[in-house]
Design goal:
Elements lengths: L16 E4 L2 E6 L2 E5 L10 E2 L14 E2 L4 E4 L9 E4 L9 E6 L5 E10 L2 E6 L6 E5 L2 E12 L6 E7 L7 E10 L20 E5 L4 E4 L8 E6 L2 E6 L3 E4 L7 E10 L2 E2 L6 E4 L16 E7 L19 E5 L2 E2 L6 E2 L11 H13 L3 E8 L9 H18 L3 E6 L5 H15 L4 E4 L12 H8 L6 E5 L6 E2 L5 E2 L4 H14 L6 E6 L12 H13 L17 E5 L1 H6 L3 H11 L3
Parallel strand pairs: 23-24, 23-34, 24-27, 27-28, 28-29, 29-30, 30-33, 33-34
Antiparallel strand pairs: 1-2, 2-3, 4-14, 5-8, 6-7, 7-14, 8-13, 9-12, 9-14, 10-11, 10-13, 15-16, 16-19, 17-18, 17-20, 20-21, 20-22, 25-26, 31-32
Helix pairs in contact: 2-3, 3-4, 5-6, 6-8
Pfam families: CBM_4_9 (PF02018), fn3 (PF00041), Glyco_hydro_18 (PF00704)
Keywords: Carbohydrate metabolism, Glycosidase, Hydrolase, Polysaccharide degradation
Family: Belongs to the glycosyl hydrolase 18 family. Chitinase class II subfamily.
Length: about 575
C-alpha cells in the first residue's frame, strides 16, 4: 500500500502566528515578541511505522504461528495488504517495533476489513492502548493515541483478530508523531521502463510475452496496439482472445503507487492460422451428456480420453471470463495432468472421431460471464468461435447461474451460430427456478434460439420444491419432480428432442437432489412411454425426448461409473 505522508502536524499554528527559526513570533501591535528564541525548529511529525502499506510483503512485521501473509487483493491503496487468519488458540497477532521519541504523543491508526480486528500499542512507558472493531465488509479506520514515557525509545504496535473468527485485513498503518531516530519510509518513485520484452509461444488466439524485472515495480501493464492494458504482477503473461492470423503490437509499462513508467519498446507477433476442425459427428437421437471437470475438487481426475464411453456430449467445464465483458478464454488446469495443450486437443479429436461431441461450457457455480450489450454479445461470439477453431470444440454449453439477459444472450448465440454453421451443438443447463414458466430469461432465450438449440438439460438438483406443469408442488429427489417439471418445458414450446434430465452422478456430486439411477430411468420411461410414473402422469408421452445429463463424469468415475453404466444404455434404448 502507498501511505499518504502529506499529513500536517497535529497542532497547526493558530492565525496570527508563524515559526521564525526556532522561535515563535507573536504579532503584538507594531512590534514582535520572541518566545523561546533559544530553541530549535520543531521537525514535522512523520509516520514512524515501516512498510506501513505492506508493499514489501511482511518486511518489518512478524506474525504469530505464520498466520499473516501479504496479499495483492483486496487492498485499500497501493499493491499490498496484510491478511491474517486466526486459528485454534492463535489470534493471528502481527507486530512491529517502532522507534519513538520519549515524552511524545503519537496517533496510531490503520485501515481494516474482514473479521474482528484489533489495533494497539504496548511498551509505551505510560498507558498502553488498543481499539477494535467487529466484522467489517468495507475498509474501516481504527484510530487511537498514546504518549511515550520519559525514557521510552521504542514501542511495539500490533494487530490481531479473534480466536476462531474470519481472517482480517490491514492496510495503511500509521504511527504519526515525532521522529524517534528511525526516520520514515522513503516515498516511492515511478519505476524505470521495462526492458527485454519478447514474444514466446503463439496460438491462433493468444501470444505469450515476457520481460525483465524492474526494481521498485509492484505490477506491470501490458498494452496491445497501444490500448487495452492488462494488469499483471509478474514478468510474463499470455494475452488471449486474439483473432487468428493477425499481427499485434505489444508494449509493457511498470507500475507502483507513485505512477506508471513509460511504455517499453514495442514487439510484434502474429497469431497462428487455424485449421478447420470440421463439424464433428451428429448428436444421437437419444443422448447422454456429461460434464468433464477441468479442475480437481476431490473427484476422480480424468483426462478426456478417460471419459466413459456412454457419454455422447462431453461439456468441458469451464471457460473463463476476462476483463472484456462477454469475452471467454480457456485455461487448461495443470491439475488434470496433461503434459501439453496439444495432448488435450488430441483427446478432443479422438473423442470426435469416436462419434462424441465435445463442447465448451460457460458459467458454472462460480463462473460469471456478462452479456448485456451489443458489444459484449459480439465479444462472446467471437471468442467462443475462436475457442471452437483452436481446440476443435463442437459448440457451447450455457450454464450461467448468476442471471442472464435474454435479448443479448440470444444475439450472442445467433452470431456464434452464423460463424460456426448448422452443425454447432448448443446446450443449456438452467436451474429449476429458471424454467418455471416461459417468461423467465432462460426460457425466453431457449425459445428464441429454438431453431439452433440441441438440448436443455435442466439441473434437477440443489433446488427447493417447485411447481409442476399441473400447478402442484413437488420436492426434489422423486420421479414426480423430474417428470412434472420436464412437462413445463415440453408444454412451453421446446421440442421433446430439446429436453433432457440433469441429475448428479453421485451423492457427492451436488449439495442435494441426488436420485438413484433407477428413478432417472423411471422418469425417462414415464415421459417417453407412460410407464414407471409416480403420482404425476402426463396426459401424453414424448418418445423423442433427448435423454439425460449428469454432473459430472468425474463424480461418476468416483462412484465406479454406476450412473453412466445404468442410465447410459437406458437412454440409448429409448424408443
Amino acid at each position: 500500500m502507498h501511505v499518504d505522508r502529506t499529513t500536517t502536524r497535529r497542532e497547526a499554528a493558530a492565525p496570527g502566528r508563524r515559526w521564525l527559526g526556532g522561535a515563535l513570533a507573536l504579532a503584538v501591535g507594531s512590534g514582535l515578541v520572541l518566545v523561546g528564541g533559544a530553541g530549535t525548529a520543531q521537525a514535522a511529525d512523520v509516520n514512524v511505522a515501516k512498510n506501513a502499506g505492506f508493499e514489501n510483503g511482511l518486511a518489518n512485521w512478524s506474525c504469530s504461528a505464520g498466520s499473516g501473509t501479504a496479499v495483492s487483493s483486496p487492498v485499500r491503496t497501493g499493491a499490498g495488504a496484510l491478511r491474517a487468519t486466526p486459528a485454534g488458540l492463535d489470534n493471528a497477532k502481527c507486530v512491529q517495533t517502532v522507534a519513538v521519541k520519549p515524552g511524545s504523543t503519537y496517533t496510531l491508526s490503520a485501515w481494516v476489513q474482514g473479521g474482528y480486528a484489533y489495533l494497539g500499542a504496548t511498551g509505551t512507558g505510560t498507558t498502553d492502548v488498543s481499539t477494535w472493531t467487529p466484522d467489517s465488509a468495507a475498509w474501516k479506520q481504527l484510530t487511537t493515541t498514546f504518549t511515550t514515557g520519559a525514557s521510552t525509545t521504542s514501542v511495539q504496535i500490533y494487530t490481531h483478530g479473534w480466536y476462531g473468527t474470519s481472517p482480517y485485513l490491514v492496510d495503511d498503518v500509521s504511527v504519526f508523531g515525532p521522529d524517534g531516530g528511525g526516520g520514515q519510509d522513503p516515498d516511492p518513485v515511478v519505476p524505470a521502463t521495462p526492458a527485454g520484452l519478447a514474444a514466446g509461444t503463439v496460438t491462433s488466439s493468444s501470444v505469450a510475452l515476457s520481460w525483465g524485472t524492474v526494481s521498485g515495480a509492484t505490477g506491470y501493464k501490458v498494452y496491445r496496439d497501444g490500448a487495452n492494458p492488462q494488469t499483471v504482477t509478474g514478468t510474463s503473461t499470455t494475452v488471449t482472445g486474439l483473432t487468428a492470423d493477425t499481427t499485434y503490437q505489444f508494449q509493457v509499462a511498470a507500475t507502483n503507487s507513485a505512477g506508471e513508467s513509460a511504455k517499453s519498446t514495442a514487439v510484434t507477433a502474429r497469431t497462428a492460422k487455424v485449421t478447420d476442425p470440421g463439424p464433428g459427428p451428429a448428436v444421437p437421437k437419444h443422448a447422454l451428456t456429461g460434464y468433464w471437470q477441468n479442475f480437481n475438487n476431490g473427484a476422480t481426475v480424468q483426462k478426456l480420453r478417460d471419459v466413459q464411453s456412454q457419454y455422447d456430449i462431453i461439456a468441458v467445464s469451464f471457460a473463463d471470463s476476462t476483463a472484456t465483458p462477454g469475452q471467454i478464454v480457456f485455461n487448461l488446469d495443470p491439475a488434470v495432468g496433461y503434459a501439453s495443450v496439444a495432448d488435450f486437443k488430441a483427446d478432443i479429436a479422438a473423442k470426435k472421431a469416436a462419434g462424441k461431441s465435445v463442447i465448451i461450457s460457460v458459467g458454472g457455480e462460480k463462473g460469471n460471464v456478462t452479456i448485456n450489450s451489443d458489444a459484449s454479445a459480439t465479444a462472446f461470439a467471437n471468442s467462443a468461435y475462436a475457442l471452437m477453431q483452436e481446440y476443435g470444440f463442437n459448440g457451447v454449453d450455457i450454464d450461467l447461474e448468476h442471471g442472464i439477459n435474454s435479448t443479448y444472450l440470444t444475439k450472442a448465440l445467433r452470431q456464434l451460430s452464423a460463424k460456426a454453421g448448422s452443425t454447432m451443438v448448443l446446450t443449456m443447463a438452467p436451474q429449476t427456478i429458471d424454467m418455471q414458466n416461459t417468461g423467465t430469461e432462460y426460457f425466453k432465450t431457449a425459445l428464441a434460439v429454438k431453431d439452433i438449440l440441441t438440448v436443455v438439460n435442466m439441473q434437477y438438483y440443489n433446488s427447493g420444491s417447485m411447481l409442476g406443469c399441473d400447478g402442484k408442488v413437488y420436492s426434489q429427489g422423486s420421479v414426480d419432480f423430474l417428470t412434472a417439471l420436464a412437462c413445463i418445458q415440453l408444454q412451453g414450446g421446446l421440442a421433446p428432442s430439446q429436453v433432457g434430465l440433469g441429475v448428479p452422478a453421485s451423492t457427492r456430486g451436488a449439495g442435494s437432489g441426488y436420485v438413484d439411477p433407477q428413478i432417472v430411468k423411471n422418469a425417462l420411461d414415464c415421459l417417453t412411454k407412460g410407464t414407471g410414473c409416480g403420482t404425476f402422469k402426463p396426459a401424453q408421452t414424448w418418445p423423442s425426448l433427448r435423454g439425460a445429463m449428469t454432473w459430472s463424469t468425474n463424480w461418476d468415475a468416483t462412484a465406479g461409473n454406476a450412473w453412466s453404466n445404468a442410465v447410459g444404455p437406458h437412454v440409448h434404448n429409448l424408443p
